[in-house]
Amino acid sequence: MIKVENLVKTFGKFTAVHDVSFDVAQGEIFAFLGPNGAGKTTTIRMLTTLLRPTSGKIELDGLDPTVKQKEARQRFGIVFQDPSLDNEQTAYENMELHGVLYHVPRKVRAERTERLLKLFELWERRDDYVKTFSGGMKRRLEIARGFLHTPKILFLDEPTLGLDPQSRNQLWTHVKNLNETEQTTVFLTTHYMDEAARVAHRIAIIDHGRIVAQGTVEELKQQTNSDSLENAFLALTGASLRDESANSADAMRQVAKMWRR
Amino acid sequence: MSAIYILWLRELKRYLRSKVQIIVSLGQPMLYLLALGFGLGPVFQRAGSGSYLQFIAPGVVGMTVLFSSVFSGIAMLWDRQFGFLKETLVAPVPRIQIMIGRTLGGATVAMIQGLLIMLACLIAGFRPQHWLAIPFAFVFVALIAIVFAALGTSIGSVIKDMQGFQLIMNFLVMPLFFLSGALFPLTHLPTALKVITRIDPLSYGVDGLRGALIGSWAIGMRLDFALLGVLAVVFLGMGAYMFSRIEV
């Protein structure tokens, strides 16, 4: 379903993604793990047409997203690392807007919106503004929205960041459930190793833009002689800390908090 | 088409839902209308130019539409920061449709603001030469709204932080307003100022409004109309290009 060959992305002299190759089969849940700044989000951005690869090949459901951009976009759903909801509209309106943008016919839109909002336990709050939602509710709504147009692939970029264990647990239950009932291929990144071990069929570990290991949880543990995925991860990527520099978006978020808009 | 509609509708909903903001954004033009309109009225009268309130009302309408439409584009800054922009940019819809939906939404909001200020002017004592002049004036309101909403979209596609916003405010929007003839007549000006006012696109909008409403044209209806029409096309093209280049 996802096929990546020798993918490279450079920003000036810095190589963010360095010769990455992997395959994800249809219906599989594939986790992409790595420390901060390892190239996870850059890879997702290239897979989801937001960034042009410097070189290499990508195939999504047999389509090259750099050429057939529109067709590729119709086939995947994405939940970004940062929220991407419209706070000034209700949960239902957010679903509606997404459905229109993804050409979901009116009747199907209404049915699926109801089903998904009920599944993610947001149906009762459908007419409330998103700005009144908690972090967990917003995440649930984003994931429900991602499933609305029945994508073949769902990208989840650190979907559980900042959520309490209850919300995380529930969220993965729903994702697994939909992965089974709708045969959606799921590509996820996360920093929580226990989550990856629980939901992912296969895992790739990326560091400094290169894939350092790939396989099932058991395979990764065997490779590194570790008793848990977390230890396997540390064995593969080292224990040193990674710092990302702040960008203008972070600075703006500070201002936004001050202005409370 | 449905993408354009739903994004247009979103802009409209956001506007109608923020009641406080509607009042706030009408406050500044009202201040100009009342403080300057009545404050400078006697001086203007003594200079033999008639009622200043009559003169300034079309200028204040033009100003309201300018601010409202430019801001609608710059409001993209917030959508960028709160992430909603990304949702629309990965959708399987050509970017031009997203840009057009947003821009027309912003222009529509600006026109509603213009209508509200027009009503306020009428309440304050402004009288158009003829009641039919008001629908005619709204042709110019629509042109001003589209020109500057498209300009706002271009700017919003480029700036990324509050500093950029302040820069645009002080070095673009305020000069556009002050040098447009919204507050003073465009006749008998020093040559330098005259040249500058003729470069300012809002001059043609304000002239059109004033001509339509009180029958005093300093530039001329045909030129006002043609120039704004051409600029609308140029700025929409520019906005579409800038918008298509956004990377998130």
Explain what the structure shows.
The complex is a heterodimer of chains A (261) and B (248). Chain A is 41% helix and 22% strand. Chain A has a single domain (2-259), classed as Rossmann fold (3-Layer(aba) Sandwich), CATH 3.40.50. In chain A, strand 1 and strand 2 (14-24) form a beta hairpin. The model of chain A has no long low-confidence stretch (mean pLDDT 89). In chain A, the strands form 2 sheets. In chain A, strands 5-6-7-3-8-9 form a 6-stranded mixed β-sheet, with helices on both faces. A 3-stranded antiparallel β-sheet of chain A has the order 2-1-4, with helices on one face. Chain A has 10 helices and 9 strands. Chain A is of the alpha/beta class and 261 residues long. Chain A starts with a strand and ends with a helix. Chain A has helices spanning 40-47, 69-75, 91-101, 106-119, 135-147, 165-181, 193-199, 217-224, 229-237, 248-259; strands at 2-11, 14-24, 29-33, 55-60, 76-79, 153-157, 185-189, 202-207, 210-215. In chain A, helix 3 crosses helix 4, helix 4 runs antiparallel to helix 5 and helix 5 packs parallel to helix 6 (165-181). Chain B is mainly α. Chain B has one domain (2-244). Chain B is 80% helix and 0% strand. Chain B is globular, with a radius of gyration of 18 Å.
